[in-house]
Amino acid sequence: MALERLRALAALDPRLRPWCDELQTSYYTVEELSQHLRQYRERLDADPARLQAVEERLATLARLKRKYGATLADILAYREAIERELQEWEHREERLEALTAALEQQRRTLKSLAVTVSDKRRQAALRLQQAVQQVLQELNMAGATFHIACTLRRHPQGPFAVGSERVGLTAEGIDEVTYLFAPNPGQPPRPLARIASGGELSRVMLALKSLLAQEDQIPTLVFDEVDAGIGGQTANIVGEKLHRLARSHQILCITHLPQIASHADHHYHVAKQSDGERTTIRVRPLDFAARVEEIARMSGGTPITEATRKHAEELLTRHP
Fold it and tell me: Which segments of 123-227 are extended strands (E)?
């Protein structure tokens, strides 16, 4: 034994006695640890079946993490979600009945709102129709007829029925709105875009825009040949309406009548030029003197006289 041999050497050499003491202490420590390990081994319950079960459970958890989430919390959250989905599926008939009832209620509400909007639209159309008709008389179109036709948008597969007919529904409602126009007495009104000439269409649009100026969001309006077929006092009325409309919109108006042109805030001269090979259009702004010349030319033609020039200046200063 190492301790006994060290003791024999220490008897011969006293310097080895401290080592002998240290070895003796280590011996007691190892002996104590050995006793603890024996006790631990005796208490240890080695169950191969239990070990296999734990390893299988760890492998299952690893597969679940790869498929349903990186953590156990993610896996449990997924489990709760599919449990809720399963419960909903098991009660699908009751859920379907509830959704069907809710859908039917929404359909009834939608129909009620659509019919209300349709009624209000017809009332507003009648008021607008009468107002436009009055303005057209002021624009020297007393013989013309303007009508707004509001008809149901019929559709065999429409979402609901109004009266005895099924109707289609869009974001604009269940109505189809058409502007109808007859330029002369005795003619049946027809769609405005098909029957009106350029000048008539411009004047109808002028009537509409002058009435709706405070409601629409269109920033710029263009009126081309709005003076076709008019003159004198009617032309002045058209000019006044255009000028009032210009307070809330930018108005571009192409005209040959001085009564209308004189109401403008700015004037541009448009001329066509050709050098024999190419034709170009030139547009240039006019200062006050040039405006006077152009209004005079429109009023009396050429040559421009002092009388026509003075009349032109009066028109411009009357409508600054």
Answer: 145-152, 160-162, 165-167, 175-182, 190-191, 220-224
**Distance, CA of 156 to CA of 273 (rounded, Å):** 58
Alpha-carbon distance of 281 to 272, in angstroms, equals 5
Angle, vertex CA 231, rays to CA 226 and CA 233, nearest 5: 110
What tokens appear for 122 in the block?
A: 């017809």
- Report yes or no: 196 and 181 within 8 Å, Cβ to Cβ: yes
Strands (E), 256-310: 268-274, 279-285
What tens digit of pLDDT does each residue of 10-20 get? 777 778 777 77
Kindly report the backbone phi and psi dihedral angles of residue 160, in degrees, each rounded to the nearest multiple of 5, phi listed first.
-155, 170
- By three-state DSSP, how is residue 13 classified? coil
pTM: 0.58
The number of beta carbons lying within 10 Å of the beta carbon of residue 175 is 20
For the cut 70, the answer to whether the pLDDT of residue 6 exceeds it is no
